[in-house]
């Protein structure tokens, strides 16, 4: 179905960010989105993969990005190194589920940069060369988009990415609800 420009704008204004129930409801969680203007509505439900996605309604249609685009958030390179190390099997199964669903997955890592990763500025025995190779391989293998940012803007980045993924989906005129 093709939606009008006005319908798309209204649906984007009513977009809800969905946080996986495993994301802890902490002060940092609430602060993450407090910097967004306007502050988005946050709902919680179990996601099959990823930590954040979005949904909205447009006309009588319910549109969910849960199997189209998600964001997996890590608080640091330390946490990501653990995922590529001893938690690799669990982590890879999540990315495989996303790939099988045909979803794009953004890997947002707070307080991180390629420079720090390559220089080994993290607490892990995982060598920088192996760490970088894993991230680059998964980028190719799982349609992964790595995003590094400061923690204080991660909520704004999450909202921005999901807004434009939703806009792109609606403007293509697809319907998944």
**How big is the Rg?**
17 Å
The count of strands amounts to 7
Order of helices and strands: HEHEEEEHHEHHEH
Strand order of the largest sheet: 2-1-3-4
Helix-strand category: alpha/beta
Measured distance between first and last alpha carbons: 11 Å
**What average pLDDT do the residues reach?**
93
Overall number of domains: 1
Q: Spans of 5+ residues with little confidence (pLDDT < 50)? A: none
Overall shape: it is globular
CATH class: Alpha Beta
User: Major beta sheet, specifics?
Assistant: 4 strands, mixed
Report the helical percentage.
Answer: 40-55%
β content, as a range? 15-25%
Give the CATH architecture.
3-Layer(aba) Sandwich
Separate helix tally:
7
Stated plainly, the CATH topology is called: Rossmann fold
């Amino acid at each position: 179905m093709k939606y009008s420009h006005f319908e798309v704008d209204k649906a984007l204004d009513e977009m809800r960010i969905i946080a996986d129930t495993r994301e802890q409801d902490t002060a940092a969680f609430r602060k993450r989105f407090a910097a967004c203007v306007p502050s988005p509505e946050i709902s919680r439900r179990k996601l099959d993969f990823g930590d954040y996605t979005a949904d909205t309604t447009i006309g009588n249609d319910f549109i969910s990005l849960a199997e189209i685009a998600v964001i997996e958030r890590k608080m640091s390179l330390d946490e990501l190194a653990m995922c590529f190390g001893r938690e690799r099997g669990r982590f890879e199964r999540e990315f495989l589920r996303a790939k099988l669903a045909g979803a794009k997955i953004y890997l947002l890592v707070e307080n991180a940069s390629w420079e720090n990763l390559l220089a080994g500025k993290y607490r892990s025995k995982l060598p920088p060369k192996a760490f970088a190779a894993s991230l680059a391989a998964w980028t190719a293998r799982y349609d992964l988009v790595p995003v590094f940012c400061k923690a204080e803007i991660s909520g704004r980045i999450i909202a921005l990415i999901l807004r434009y993924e939703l806009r792109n989906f609606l403007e293509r005129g697809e319907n998944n609800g």
